[in-house]
């Protein structure tokens, strides 16, 4: 997660929900890439964020899975379901979470609303990928819908355990509809 946060510092947006002024008061975080931006778009940003070191340190089977299964599935689902220029008019969610002890208190919705209001004002899409069913349910309540899905196996179980990735979009206020 640190690598993703560092990457977002370069060309993304990080929103934090905190109950006070200290780092220990942080209860939620969201990282988004605004229209026209994407995660780790250049070798320079991959190097500065620590991505290259992160992926280099994977054990071979995990690295192969990440690069050839997970990343490929993620790219393909976007390529197949979205127009080629979707990043030009879409906020893309990368990380979203609220500490378990603080869930259900509206902090996640408050984090979401920060970008939602901006997307609404500019007529932009909002796009994300979710694997866990609980996440799909949460994002559906926030106005997202499943646009496409794909399945991929888990490297730890030699692909016996299969996950379903859902590409979700909130386009209720998009000017591209």
Automatic annotation (TrEMBL):
InterPro entries: Acyl_CoA_acyltransferase, GNAT_dom, Trichothecene_AcTrans. It comes from the Eukaryota. GO terms for molecular function: acyltransferase activity, transferring groups other than amino-acyl groups. Pfam families: Acetyltransf_7 (PF13508). Coiled coil: none annotated. Residues 96-145 form the N-acetyltransferase domain. This is N-acetyltransferase domain-containing protein. It comes from Crepidotus variabilis. The lineage of its organism: Eukaryota, Fungi, Dikarya, Basidiomycota, Agaricomycotina.
């Amino acid at each position: 997660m640190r690598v993703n946060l560092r990457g977002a510092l370069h060309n993304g947006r990080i929103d934090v929900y905190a109950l006070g002024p200290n780092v220990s008061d942080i209860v939620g975080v969201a990282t988004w890439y605004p229209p026209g931006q994407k995660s780790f778009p250049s070798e320079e940003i991959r190097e500065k964020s620590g991505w290259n070191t992160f992926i280099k340190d994977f054990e071979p089977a995990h690295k192969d899975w990440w690069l050839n299964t997970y990343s490929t599935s993620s790219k393909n689902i976007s390529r197949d379901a979205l127009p080629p220029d979707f990043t030009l008019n879409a906020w893309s969610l990368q990380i979203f979470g609220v500490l378990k002890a603080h869930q259900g208190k509206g902090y996640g919705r408050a984090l979401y609303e920060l970008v939602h209001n901006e997307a609404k004002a500019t007529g932009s899409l909002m796009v994300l990928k979710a694997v866990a069913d609980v996440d799909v349910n949460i994002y559906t309540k926030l106005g997202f819908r499943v646009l496409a899905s794909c399945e991929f196996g888990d490297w730890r179980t030699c692909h016996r355990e299969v996950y379903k990735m859902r590409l979700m979009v909130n386009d209720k206020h998009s000017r591209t509809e």
